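tool_call: predict_structure(chain=1)
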Amino acid sequence: MMDRWCEALAAVRRGESKYKVLVRAIAADIENGNLKEGTRLPAQRALSEKLGISGQTVTNAYKELEQHGVIRCEVGRGSFVAKRVTEKVASYMLDHAERSLMDFSIAAIVHTDEHNRVWREACSALAVQPSHPWMRLCRPIAGFDYHRDAGVQWLDSLGLSTSMDRLLITNGASHALFLTLASLVSPADVVLCENITDHGVIGCAQVLGFTLKGLDTDEHGIQPDHFEDMCANERITALVCTPNLNNPTGALMPDSRRRAIARIAERYRVYVIEDDVFGPLLAQRPAPICSHLPELGFYFTSFTKSVMTGLRIGYLSMPKRLALRVESILRVTSWMATPLLAEIATRWIGDGTAHQLIDIQRERLAQRHSIVREQLSEFVLGQQHAGLSVWLGIPAHWQLDSLVQELRNQQIAVTAPNPFLVGGTPRPNAIRMCLGAEGGDIRINAALSTVADVFRQYPRVNDYP
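tool_result:
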């Protein structure tokens, strides 16, 4: 293995960086399976001596591999081959449904017969339409004007005033997040977020190569004092946050804290990227942070977590001076958002269907949260009863991984905190359980009762590490 790395370094051309060559050589061995997940890499000093290069060259190579999520470096233990981003997520959240399993691992809405009905009606209406511009035209990149106008109306209903020249239609919230970060950051930049955050943010850091650092949080979200301290002592480019129903903790940030964060961001000229994908689930909500930061705020939401899971349409509002830059990245990544889905979203905003489906969602989620409180009240962390998931602290007599495995043995899938942890964040003894799981009320009740029973039981002796 190291012989191949030696050969690669021996072939370095004039002006070519040795550490970049080493990065490519190690990454190639990981990609083709010569280095398996979990394999310990040679110690940096030993590798520098073996390859005849400086220790700093090896350090730089390992650092870049770690930034891209290819390896993980553990103080006092060494460097190890990491799972790929998608593999990490898939090991905690199921990619494929299993019929016999009650799947609480994926954050999805509660699907009802009403969802089926309105979808069939939408398809029927589209089928008899004499003209189908959303299927024939591929411009403008930002979205058809009347689709964007509907987006402006939708964001206004969520408390953010914007305009068509500042709004793009995206393929959901994840797409909006990537567009925003790609337009703002480079590998040299530092971005802040909640120390327990959506795994999509962590994945973007690994793909785009910037440094992601977590901020201290409590039951109300990001602590402003830590945000200000970081801004005062480091060059911070942006803050990514989810003030409404943070995933996975469910924290809801109060208005006073939002205003404090906006003031700090303005003082230090830090962009705020506000993910409000869960905001529509709240009947009442404080104004978005970005409503206080028109020149520094990026705000986005989508329909997937409130209206219909497959309606992957999002709306991204941004500072006007950066609109052309973000639109150019949209053109490169997907040309434009899917016009057919944008057409359905526009119709549902106009005729009230979107709000009707959200009302149904709030009602169904309230019912399921009520069941959770009946069965597991002593384990629920936080006070929110409106989100798609609950954050449960596990009993002290259970080891977290053993508990997750025991629930899986009982045909129940939940999510451990691992995918949500920013580097350096201690792993909390908690699990995320999503309440949009497929299954009737009888199955949901039975599964939650099983979870409660497992929590209160003691593990087998051989379940301890």
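agent: The longest strand covers residues 297-302. Proceeding to next step.
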